[in-house]
Amino acid sequence: MTSSRDEARPQFTSVTPVRAYESVVAQIEDAVFTGQLVPGDRLPSERDLMAQFGVSRGTVREALRVLESGGLIRSRPGDPGGATVQANSSARLAKALTTFVKLGQIGVGELIEFRMVVEGSAVRLAAELHDEAALGAMEEAFARMEEAAGVSYEAFSAADVAFHLAVASCSSNSLFSACSEFARDTVLALTTENLKESGDPSERIQETLRRHGAYLQAIRDRDGRTAEALARQDLVDYYGPHLSPDERARIRLLLLPVG
Amino acid sequence: MTSSRDEARPQFTSVTPVRAYESVVAQIEDAVFTGQLVPGDRLPSERDLMAQFGVSRGTVREALRVLESGGLIRSRPGDPGGATVQANSSARLAKALTTFVKLGQIGVGELIEFRMVVEGSAVRLAAELHDEAALGAMEEAFARMEEAAGVSYEAFSAADVAFHLAVASCSSNSLFSACSEFARDTVLALTTENLKESGDPSERIQETLRRHGAYLQAIRDRDGRTAEALARQDLVDYYGPHLSPDERARIRLLLLPVG
DNA sequence: TAGGTGTACTGGTAGGACCAGTGTGCTAGA
DNA sequence: TCTAGCACACTGGTCCTACCAGTACACCTA
Predict the structure, then answer these.
(1) Labelling A22: which of B17, B72, B152, B230 has CA 20 to 30 A away?
(2) Residues in chain B within 8 Å Cβ distance of A174
(3) CA angle, corner A161, sides to B125 and A109, nearest 5?
């Protein structure tokens, strides 16, 4: 008799208790994902939200903190109308990657490898796909670098970052942009002190200019393969001397043939 | 006179108010990042933390929610000793990427591009650097795929993922492994329904086996360039038919010459 | 000794209170 | 009439207290 009932026996699945604030987060996230809330829109105030969701203010606030840490909203006291829905979300991706790096004890070598691959691909796509406007933006960023070269090392560094950013955004793949931005920031944070005290700064600057100029030329020529090869080579030459022989050998494996 | 004081004038910089919970988050994050807290360790209870930090319980809870949403800790009621420090995982990365996708900042095409580049490089490094044990692991993962091919599509998929994981981990760059893992997860989540209803499953399985076998052979030969080229080609052939002509053209730009 | 039960923790949530910013409208003064 | 300044209403930031619901562990009983 029991066996005849077996087929009809309901299949229960394990449940995980859902905390109130998680429901709140999910509902607001959903509203953003589905476009009911677009960047610039304002959420109701915390006191309104607690009425709408039927929860206490503490619960609402926990939800808002989670959303804020995810970069979805931003709240500021005194702002009429409550928290603001934010536009960018690459910040969250970058933060997640940074956490990963810090937890995983990832070394500079691995980060350089990552940069070679991601920035290289971004350069390649930028070379193949850029239009007039995009090329103009890259040319201008490069010009800024040349200007800043005479000012200070810091100014040049900033212009350098801006140039990489311009190139990456021309790849029209925001994942590449976000990842190369994160990797560059992290590498810089790890190596600034080492690089500064090594070699003649102005020589470094000239060398960097020359290299970047070279692959900008390849971009102009729409020669993606060459541009990528040069970009990767650039990183190897720039950071290689500061790595262990082991790491140096590894990153060399990722070089591409030129021409 | 004022001009003589100008040089001594202190340079004030803009300040951003730091909220109490942010300090709490920062301190706990720091403890985890510096290794004072390792996965499995327990934080003090919320009531203890509020005493240690000198803030209210609400503030402590907001901080813990942020940390929890970041995947750094996990808390459960009744657990003696408070929240548990979590092991590093790519789960948070996948979530951040999913958010990125859902916000419409990125499409499947861009994800495929990212996978081509990252997985390709992982395969290349695996080919160049693997030792006996690593090769054994990859061979075994491939054998599992062959076994699972006769069982079910789901089993095969799982074995497929495991194979990619084995290869990625042989690149000995955890950034590559993690990135290819979360990118693959996200792509699968976005495309599973589309791929299932297209073509003969068993034919897809055989095709996948053949391709993977091909670049496993290149790995055996320590031919990193070929292995990477094949891995990238694999992705183009596998996903290309399901992309728009535009996206298809883009991902083709990232192909590498074979041989 | 084995089992059940009670207790002392844990986090989850509610509600109230106060402070400190911020924007706006109104008012008093020019 | 116009404007400068102030008061107010609103925002989030923080604190406090209280209670509920799980969990683990020790104790107590059969």
Answers:
(1) B17
(2) 100, 105-106, 110
(3) 25
